[in-house]
Design goal:
alpha/beta; Rossmann fold; seven-stranded mixed β-sheet; four-stranded mixed β-sheet; 10 helices; 17 strands; globular
């Protein structure tokens, strides 16, 4: 099982110390109702070897290389354990000659948004809905002092811990299996990321307020989400599913999203990127058993989803508290 005590010790003397009033009890409750495969996933992490990398690159990739190459048998053993943790959605990871080719080329998104961010060096960062934690490692690569990811999915926690073990990394990055709605307002983070979360929320303005509650005054919000074309009054509310996802509630225009952010009290709100999701960025791989973007689009017209909506387009919005 994952041991959270080192994280408690780490934050006890930090700006996050107030979190200790609620966090241990919440995680104890979480442990009492975990997914039926959680023990199996933890075993897969436990069975991974302890390796000492000769080099680790978190600046240009998430990559570790050994002093000498692993044998084919050693690689296959690691691959076997890592594939117990499928599907791998966010990546890629390059670990001792093993390429975890995830569904999403999350490095594409990182390369789009990084030039626009306030420098991450020495910052305390919260990554909401962090998945397996790919972007958290890239944040460390930019010199962040501490990165906390939150995501309630047990599989993502085990994927994160597997990568941590193979990278042989310290505790500057931690994934906590909770949702932001369970966090007390800490007002302690220099930067808060919410990427690919907003459209899954039944109350989007409440989510934006929760993000603001975690930021220090002057801190930066990095919000990445699905958008549609239109003016400040344009918001798509899918009748049933959007791109086969049943948990998509509100997809605003950029202008509407900027209005929402200003309405909950953010300032200096600006859109820094708009990109249509490509079949190169999200696709099927050997590390994913499920369908992917090609299956969510109209086979006759890739500019539309299978339901007839506009194909996924994503915007990056920055704002300050």
């Amino acid at each position: 099982m994952i041991d959270f005590r080192p994280f408690y010790q780490q934050i006890a003397t930090s700006s996050l110390s107030a979190w200790l009033e609620t966090l241990p009890a919440q995680l104890k409750q979480w442990e009492s109702q975990t997914h039926g495969d959680y023990v199996k996933w933890c075993k897969a992490v436990e069975f991974l070897p302890h390796l000492t990398p000769a080099s680790v690159d978190l600046k240009g990739a998430v990559k570790a290389e050994g002093i000498s190459p692993l044998s084919a048998g050693e690689q296959q053993q690691i691959i076997h354990h890592l594939k117990q943790l499928m599907p791998w959605r966010k990546g890629p990871y390059h670990l001792y000659g093993i390429h975890i080719d995830c569904e999403w080329r999350s490095d594409f998104k990182w390369d789009r948004l990084l030039p626009h961010l306030a420098p991450l060096k020495d910052r305390t960062i919260l990554d909401v809905g962090c998945g397996s934690g790919y972007h958290m490692w890239r944040m460390l690569g930019e010199g962040a002092e501490m990165v906390v990811g939150i995501d309630p999915t047990e599989l993502f926690l085990c994927q994160f811990e597997a990568v941590r073990k193979l990278l042989n990394q310290d505790r500057r990055a931690n994934l906590i299996p909770l949702g932001i709605e369970q966090m007390q307002p800490l007002g302690a983070f220099d930067t808060v990321f919410s990427m690919g979360v907003l459209y899954h929320r039944k109350s989007p303005l409440e989510h934006l307020s929760q993000l603001k509650d975690q930021l220090k005054k002057g801190g930066e919000l990095v919000l990445e989400t699905l958008v549609v074309d239109g003016d400040e009054n344009c918001v798509l509310v899918p009748a049933d599913r959007y791109a086969k996802m049943k948990n998509v509630y509100f997809i605003p225009s950029v202008a509407a999203l900027i209005n929402w952010l200003e309405k909950v009290g953010f300032n200096n709100v600006r859109c820094v990127d708009i990109s249509v999701t490509s079949l190169e960025e999200q696709r099927k791989t050997d590390w994913l058993e499920n369908e992917s973007l090609i299956d969510f689009l109209d086979p006759q017209d890739h500019s539309k989803t299978i339901e007839g909506y506009h194909a996924p387009k994503r915007a990056v919005i920055l704002a300050n508290k």
